[in-house]
Amino acid sequence: MANKFNLMKLVLAGTLALTLTACGSSGTNNGNSENAAKPDNTAAGSTNKPEDTKKDNVTITFQNIYPDPTDPKNGMMKKIVKQYETEHPNIKIELDSLNTDQQKLKLKTQAASKEVPDITIVNPAAQMQPFVEAGLFAPLNDMVEQNGLKDTFQEGILDWYTFDNNLYALPDGNNIGVVYYNKELFEQGGVNVPTTFEEMVDVVKALKAKGIQPMAIGEKDTWTGSFLFMNMLLRTNGGPGFLQDVIDGKKTFEDPAFTEAVSSFEDLVQAGAFQEGATSFDYNAGENLFKTGKAAMYYMGSWATGGIETSSVNGKVGVFKFPTINGKGNADEFMLAPGSGFAISANSKHLQETKDFLNYFMINFPKEAFAVKGAVGIAQKVDGDFKAAGYSDMAMEVLSLFQSVKGGDLAFDNTMNPGTAQGHLTSIQNLFVQKTDPADVAKEHQSAYDSNK
């Protein structure tokens, strides 16, 4: 597996490709971006020909994680699908739109019975590996060579989806974790952007005292709390690599850096940072609290930018880096999020037709994402001037943060095996419900790791 790729190089190369266009270049640096920008029925990836008049009807199931109609990517997906169906009358694309946790659970069930949908969603690195080893996904090497599709991706990003020199998924994102904040609510609460974690806890308490909900989260989808927690561990560890040190036998979960991260996380929870019943809010419901102006802060990957930009709080939102904790860590080190990837079932009854559609979808993805203001943090090169296209000041702030990235860590469940990851997700979710001795949380993690080696 190509997971030894240098993270800093991946992010810096990717952000360079993105921010060059963000600053108003002519777009001539983007390889085959001309293909991605074709607006009509001759869009790259189309294989429709006048003589193709009598073909068998084909239905392709497209499992995805764009269920929220307010998410720009939802509308973008439907537009590309409709366009493809128009050009290929014998093809029907059946959408199976689920939130992230629902999709993960459904895919596990489908994988167990070897009934993976034609196109599904999978996360990179460790999360992909069991599916690849089980032979459930089709290699896509041949597909990405069509129409220069491979060259539309940012340098190095495809390595996270490659095993034994075979590419098994195409990512939709290349993101960093940031804190979004509502400037109006900060002003009403009389608080400023925190530069340390200790100040962040004080901001939470001050907002709470003014009757303002400090932070929003959708912890029913357990990865959300984990993503935040891991940014805190990145700080208390003094830099990236804690989980890799555990895997290499250099550290255990009972290391002081881990227990300090748990303690700090609990400080945030106990200060009243999150909405009541946070574990009953899924990702979309949690994010909607922020997007409707009902919460002052929201920690999430930069993929959330597009949805926030098209919400009622657009124009009121700024972003800041997750701060240092007890003087530890570097704010220019971020949680790095190579996005979820589109994989094709090795057992698809319509393998070639499915490859043709996914090729078309990904060729058109950058252009359509840019058009709906959803192109911040995508995995492909973007041909366009973000500012001239009307992207908000917030979006431009996020793009500027990409330029400051000095490295970081991947999410827990993209690094550890599935059994350990599930133990971690459950353990962190419990912290939203009850305060637990950090030493006991560390032992829970170590036990899960030892049981799943």
From TrEMBL:
It comes from the Bacteria. Residues 1-24 form the signal peptide. The keyword Signal applies. InterPro entries: Bact_solute-bd_prot1, SBP. Residues 28-56 are annotated as: Disordered. Keywords: Signal. This is Extracellular solute-binding protein. It comes from Paenibacillus mendelii.
